[in-house]
UniProtKB/TrEMBL annotation:
Keywords: Isomerase
NCBIfam families reported in the protein's UniProt record: PhzF_family, PRK10281.1
Protein family according to the UniProt entry: Belongs to the PhzF family.
Protein's name according to its UniProt entry: PhzF family isomerase
SUPFAM superfamilies in alphabetical order: Diaminopimelate epimerase-like
Annotated organism of origin: Lacrimispora defluvii
Pfam families assigned to the protein according to its UniProt record, in alphabetical order: PhzC-PhzF (PF02567)
Highest taxon in the source lineage: Bacteria
Amino acid sequence: MKKTYRVYQVDSFTRERFTGNPAGVVTNAEGLSDCMMLKIARELNNSETAFLFPGSDGEYDVHVRFFTPLCEVPICGHATIAAHYVRALEENMASRVVIQKTGAGILPVEIRSENGDYTITMTQGEVIVGEPLPLPVQEDILAALGIPKDRHRKDCPIAIASTGHSKVMVGITEENLLHSLKPDLAKLLELSDGIGCNGYYVFTLHPEEKALVHGRMFAPAIGIAEDPVTGNANGPLGAYFITYGLFGNDMEEFSFEAVQGEAIGRKGKILVSVKIAGGNPVQVKITGEAVTVFKTELVL
């Protein structure tokens, strides 16, 4: 028997259509097989598409699964923002906390209703920040990204950080260089196999500006040449900052704004908040806005 699925295209980390990070959302995905979800994600051709399934009484309100055009991933920041934005619209929600089940665990999402629209805050998964990668590997990563060694920030060792879906953190000295990068995607793909991490987040720091961070994220191993605005890069970056002491760690919370997507014409902004205990990052939240680009139906 055929079923009609509700499909949305949503731009996350922005209120302006055709900017920020586009995500697909299927709000009534019950009945879709893994194979069919992958086909839908491939057809929509966003970096991720979120599929929403019913919750379980007393455990969680909604189960969200995330697919790139190539594979399922445990969690995705911008697609989480998109999924809960659309769900709030469909259900005309008041401000509340929703519990979602994801591949990175069961986590809260804060829905804030204001002026007839919504802002979404996502609590990310377990915070893990690794030791600096071996120097030869760091040099290979810089070469693959097209970054001269003298443009790498020495106070930013290249290391892997995760809040559910890991990224390699690469700090550089100049924003002009950031926006001119043309990485060797085949080499990054090869390196991903060796280090067990599929994404590379290159960033510059601007403590004199409202937006502390400007960044770009490349993840060819999961079919994403460049992701416009990445929750699963900027969130772990906050934990990385605290672990490596870039802005101190003697506070209870550290927050900053990041801008991403400028180099590919899809600028968006994201707010990151890191809870700190005993000098260590223990919880990361990201906050973003969203806007619906279109809604359609798919009969299968």
